[in-house]
Amino acid sequence: MSNRVPVPSDSGSPAAGGLAVALNAALQQNGGFWFGWSGNVSEEERPLQVHDFGRVSYAVMDLTQRDVDEYYAGFANRALWPVCHYRLDLTEIASNDTAGYFRVNESFARRLATLLKPDDVVWIHDYHFIPLAAYLRQMGFENRMGFFLHIPWAPYDVSSALPAYQTVLSGLTRYDLVGFQTRRDAENFTRCLEQENMARKVSDDRWEADGRVFRVGAFPIGIETDLFRQEAREAKSNSLVRRMRVSMEDKHLIIGVDRLDYSKGIRQRIEAFSCMLERFPQMRNKVTFLQITPKSRSEVPEYLKMQHEVAEQAGWTNGKFGDVDWTPVRYINKAVSRTSLAGLYRSARVGMVTPLRDGMNLVAKEYVASQRATDPGVLVLSRFAGAAAELDSALLVNPYDTEATANAIVRALQMPLEERKERWAAMMEKLRANTVDHWCAAFLAALAEEPTDVLQPPVERAAALDTALPSAAAQFGPSWTGYRRN
Fold it and tell me: Is there a catalytic annotation at residue 358?
């Protein structure tokens, strides 16, 4: 289950993207449903739409405009997203959004309940659907249920600022397996459980709450490493890539690729590039920075504001340092095909992946996978990206430190070939060992493991938890009732 479902075209081919391909392959192997939002908005509740392709049925439901405003644009993207990315300053707490998030999740659960069979394994993806298992358990389903969070989980002092925090946290204990991108995120989560006296540790990765044992683990997601390398090799004939190379002449290319989001550090990255040109004038007219940033969540005011800020930052840099025959920053606000991206990565001497906070960031892995073994580029990577735990041979930077990031850009541009090759080989070894297929298989294998622990009496929770749901219901109003604990 995922928020958006990549329903195949009539040709039967799944949507592009490593995650979609991996999950589709797992479903094709075992058979089953891929369930979620159709992406469409309707005026009233409509029946499920089911599309069958091979052994997979794609079941989607529409949402009303109110659902989208409260569940998606509201609580998910203006409360959960900023809190999980450590941005309390951007967090908005609105009782109707909180109520809408749980109301829509309950609606998804009711629809999913009509599809479930007793032996089905349920794998739920991302922050949109945290309460799903709790609602399904309330309906009596005892299926194996796993949850994977694709974004970070913040430490207790940050995550506890989330509206209905205890309800959200309790909802995660209803799964059999809760997976995170990094060990740090998993540890942040388990410390939250301990702080709230919500679960008791049974073993290294197993916890008990309300007499049920669940598992918590880190499952860093990978990419289709070999396939992406092949696409990068073949992209030399891509028209966009050819035009880019011609326009670059003999200049080095630095590339950044991000969805427009405040967590990506795009403005800080352009600022660091500007600082590099200021401090190292010998680099002027010798390097071009290409930032590809498709628009995202334009209905959220914070994103519209950021779009203007980034464009202004790029324009300021070009106005100060550019010349009639050189544009320092090329800023593109549209999507580029996967093949074109692979070719552009391969052409770039430096890949800039400097989010302020990120669950994993697959752009970092794609950039490394696309490089030539004989002449690889250099990855400049934020230490606050989940990928930094694996790709520690990159040049790791603090994106908040503008001068240090500027120095890292120069170091990357001037790095000797042998050092570039050594760093690239070390990262490629990890990318080949942990592909997206390995990630998918590892999670499903862990979810299939039944607990064998002998349980002691359930942990006595803090009194605050017992009052959390009634008080939350009173705060959110009669349209929201929370969910009962089994």
Answer: yes
